[in-house]
## 1
Amino acid sequence: MSKYQTYPEYTDSGVEWLGEIPEHWWLTRIKYVAELTPRKPTIDRRLDCSFIPMDKLKTDSLVLDETRRIDAVYDGYTYFADGDILMAKVTPCFENKNIAIANGLKNKIGFGSSEIYTIRSSEKVDNRFLFYRLQEDGFVDLAVGSMTGAGGLKRVPSETVENYTYASPAEEEQKKIANFLDHETAKIDTLIDKQQQLIKLLKEKRQAVISHAVTKGLPSATGSNAPMRNSGVEWLGEVPEHWVVRRLKHTSKLQSGIPKGKDLTGKASISVPMLRVANVQDGYLNLDDVHEMDIEPEQLARYSLEKGDVLMNEGGDNDKLGRGAVWQGEIETCIHQNHVFAIRPYSIEPVWLDLLTRASYAKFHFFRTAKQSTNLASISSTNIKETPLVIPSEHERQEIIDYVHRKVDALGKAEEKCSAQIALLQERRTALISAAVTGKIDVRNWTAPEPAGIENNKVAAV
């Protein structure tokens, strides 16, 4: 923030979490400048309106791809209109700053999740300034500390929002601060978007590297490829002539997981760690949050994981279908739930099977044989067993494994750099908003720079 000037005079606000504020700013509360949860209007319920589920409220953006008849959503959903601020009130969406200004709504009316607060600015406050003020970390920390409820259903009380005290300048200065933040956050968001696009390209490159290497082999030292033959599998196409194509069931045993919810009342039981779908990611395991499950002692051997098991998800969202990684015995005694398959290879390396199941052709097999429902898919153990596997010699498998790991590691490091850059940009965005809306920097004399093209035209005219 050092490149921005500060206000000439500050005064003690008298509020612990605000500290010093610009001398000409004054204290107010949200309820004095805005209405929380405005009343639903009398309206023609035959009209259509925009509909916003919680997952379509993002930071500074709304996904407006759903419409509903007003009559169908008038009761039981949150009402809002163009110009209103929408803010998630439930964890973790609130902490993620899922907040946006509604614009472009169908018939200028919208309804959405009951876990969204509608905040309607009065003429006393610029709605964009208030929008940024509600993203400031001081407010967020205070609101998180006041949350009520249990577990993943904690919510920010309406009283916390309405009674929040903050410092504000006059409306004209609010608009200047909002204009400044519109411009600067847009630049930061553009940089973040570029890094996210690069991560997407790196993931696609990783997929392409794996898919080509495990289905076509590596180029020879002379640059020529091995003779090819038809694999006999339509979506696999040609494979090197000397490779074998074999069903998964002829190379591995499949172990199904334990179902949850069994009543153990009056029975002896033990508590053991259990892997869920959330723990099994694409090519790695996330063991930050491993749940425990009570089971009968005699069930332990039946559902225990062994080092070298290839874990695969039964389903969920399409991107989770068949997703998996190799279990390396990270937890000494661990079982798996019934939505995670454990595949135990006996004639090929676990890492080779893992690479094959991450290849595009295998993902297509999982998708085409899966049972589909609305936004969800699941694949049976029978169809997993029928997955065609391409198998070169042991020596060639090892060469391909080493090659893929080198390439994937390099791509992973590049992806980590992009993620680190995104984190830094997000920190800068947060710090800039906080500094501007709390008066730590003075942007009253800031003007948006003219586009380079306009400046060049002026020079040409002279």
## 2
Amino acid sequence: MIWQNQEKKYHTYNRYLRNKYGQKVFKVSLNGHFTCPNKDGSKGLGGCIFCSPSGSGDFAGSVKDDLQTQFDSVKTMMHEKWPNAKYIAYFQANTNTYKPTEALKEMFEASIALDPDIVGLNIGTRCDALEASKIDLLADLNKKTDVTIELGLQSIHEATSEWMNRGHDLACFESAVKALRKQKLEVVVHIINGFPNETESMMLETVEYLNRLDIQGIKIHMLHVMKNTALAKQYHEKPFNLLTKEAYVSIAVKQIERLNPNIIVHRLTGDSPKDLLIAPLWTLKKFVVLNDIDKKMRRQNTYQGKLYQQTD
């Protein structure tokens, strides 16, 4: 059993990167001044219910700075902790393929040329902003560096999709994953636990669905209520229950148990700026949450994939 002598009983992103590149690798978040088709009226208005006005990249660089300035700033800060490391250029804020293909080509090629020690390019986007020409571009970039596409699914349940104002259906997501994988691009999927209409079994069903797709990574987050969002307005007007830390840890462990052991776990808890977070406040203690997950898995003698059931 591959987890027998490992501190973490799941396939961590840090371990994956060290095994692949032989040393520490960290992401450098870059802001390419993207918007979103779910904000500008192309597919919807207002964005997803939980989305902050600045987009999902609250820790990305400033759009006031060019890419080189953004990169150098983060690189200098991170090198204080890891003096010998390589980098992944990471476009996180909003929908990072939502520009004309030629503009994307110019930006992404410039980003992977910012430093000779850049080993990869990670791009967070939506399934409805991945036209064929853009996927072809990403495939060409994948010949120059390791390209990973991060897709926000959040939940497989259509009632949840409508509630969150996601703006696309599950068929769109699945079609995008298949198109990306046909071009051998690695795919990481974001999901969220704690939607007020979802039961534990529904959250487990989302992971079990992903097991049936050819994906390479997963990020698991807790639903955050942040200031200046549609969700915050709803939460204040008609408060709903959010998962406790104990409930979140329990569900995350059950999801890991059911997860295909070949899928890399990029995240098990999300970050939210302290000054913007309304609830749940326990998510600010990121390392406590991760430690509680580790302790529970060791206590239960469980590991990633223990309950995984392979399907055709």
## 3
Amino acid sequence: MTLWGASLYSWGMDTNNNETEELELKQLEARVEELIQTCAVLKDENHSLRQHQDNLVSERSKLIEKTETARIRVEAMINRLKAMESNHE
């Protein structure tokens, strides 16, 4: 191969390498963009799940409080009934 032929061959390989690198770079950019979008979606979902969890914790606390109030009232009624029963004997 002549010097001129080698130069053209080398230039053709450089062009091919540049095109391959450009394609790889574009694929990498697309993947990074996809990951950025996935992170944004996951961040929103995480925020939503945390809010839902906070609501459930609050609701649970209210239910525990209502259950305790009901237990106290039932115990008071039972004690009143026992007292009434004792008075009638």
## 4
Amino acid sequence: MKMFRILVIVLLLFFNCSKDVDVQTFEMEPPLTDVLTFELSFGDENTIDKDEFLLARPRSRRIVVNQNEDIYVYDEYKIKVYDKNGNPKTIFGRMGNGPGEFRGIVRPLKISPEGILSVYDRGFPSYISLFSPEHKLIAKRSIENNEIFKSIRDSYKLERDPELYALGENEFILMGNDVQEENNPQDDVYYEYLFHLNQGDVNLITKQRNVFTFISIIGNAFSRGGTGFTGRLNYTILPNRRLLYSHAAHDASVENGIGTAVLHIVSLDTGEMNDIQFTYEPREITDSEIEIYDYMGESKSVIMQHNSEILARKIKSALQEAGYHAPFHSIISDRNFVFLIYNKLFLKDNQFLRNGYLIYCIDTIKQKQVSSFLLEELPDFIYNGYLYNIGESTEGFAVIEKYKIDPAVYGK
């Protein structure tokens, strides 16, 4: 029998040793505004005189910046590299299946603090290609056929397409979940996992219950849906081989009207761990936000419609149990600073409308929050006090925009 699948809107998805806890108390200051100063844009015919470096259709989160502030952009099946002033430097990669080649379904680029570039090329099979700071191919790994990746997926029943971050030729951070139709546990409980893989050794950093994605299976009909309101597992890599992670649901709590969230920092070399706590103003999940899930789409199939109704009940139950919005939905870092990004929303005529982003800045060396600020758009990349986004020129062509971030964001 043909398997039916239902596409359900997923809101807001973009989508351990001794322990020292540093509890910070402070009055909640209003978030900073107007923190960006435009510095330059490049990539169109007005700024680039070499045709091969003109930008065609770069997508969000396909930008990274290395320690020299060189800017890498995935565009036209290639990695185009510019210096910090937007001047062309080099191009590597091309369309294809061979070493150093890409098929085009590329996930967000990642770059390690040491300058190792990861290009995750999705498909079947999927590959991750690693490039040195000199833009030379280090290795190309198959996601499906690599023994280590396959062993983890089989042992933990993970999804086929986990998230990978390369720290070296044989060192990776792997994050995935077991929310898939083949599992379907009786207790309807699924998990998110975070691993450190190094030279064949596998270390499970954390395992957390999944509270943002839900499935329903009736016969051969499979449905999947979810909500970002409840929070998920996030991580980022810091200098000196440190990993910061936090689960926006399980590592956050509200007491007496004050929200507290915990960020975990673990050394990838020693396993030493430190926690940072910060406070935030919690926002309750309203009845209107819960009731929006009463409508999950209509279907001509009775089974598919029933699946949608089951998903709606599961999501609404999870929202009622949570009570409050997650304090953040994603994490990015700039050297030793961490940005916790909360997607601000408001309701109008029972529809959710995005209304910018509230971002908390945490200094991981001083182990405290140093600011909060507002942005109208989600950053594509932040490094060394600069924000980079894909924008559009006055003529309608794609450009990379670079902004200077107000030092007050960093507590200076």
